[in-house]
Amino acid sequence: MHPFTIPEAVAARVAGRCGTPHPFARLDARRTALVVIDMQNGFMRADLAHALCPMAEHVVPAINRLAGALRRAGGAVYWIQNTFDERCETEWSVMQEMATSEARARRAASMSEGMPGHALWPALDVRICDEVVRKYRYSAFIQGGSDLPERLRARGLDTVLIAGTVTNCCCESSARDAMMLNFRTVMVSDGCAAVTDAEHSASLLGFYLQFGDVLTVDECIAGLATEERAAA
Question: Domain holding 137: CATH number?
């Protein structure tokens, strides 16, 4: 996993604004969803990947552990699949313009439904009670990206824990948009993976300063237990 610590000066700035360095340290599991972004073969398996993130495989145990703890506490788990279809050529044409023809072809071959690259990484602990959601933009929360916000609200979920890959693209985009749609949002520092340590750290710190909280898996699990004891 990536080495990551929040600098004291940054934590102090957040505490000055929020009254605490961790505004979402206590988590009500009944209102919380773990949203796992793009943990698919197309980002994790070298022979299938159109955008390989080698670190992603190393956060799988942490994601599985958090998913299990949240389920046991009464929360929900959502597995988000980056998906390519013909709408991407027109509704998100700017993204296509920014890629070479070879890169576009690799992404289409990797991320189209039914292709091996589109499948979730096999070591993920996906349960029948979980939900799998297709995503058509970097963010799972932006209009046209997915129906995830509606699914969450339909179940009374207003808090999201963001994990997956890559930290500084689809995870951060989803996290920022979730907060802008009025979800309490946490990026799970050891549940996210980027291509480099520097990108991972910069993304988490930028999010933490204005958009939400950054917690480890252990801190999330402790937050669930603290809230459970308080409710007892």
Answer: 3.40.50.850
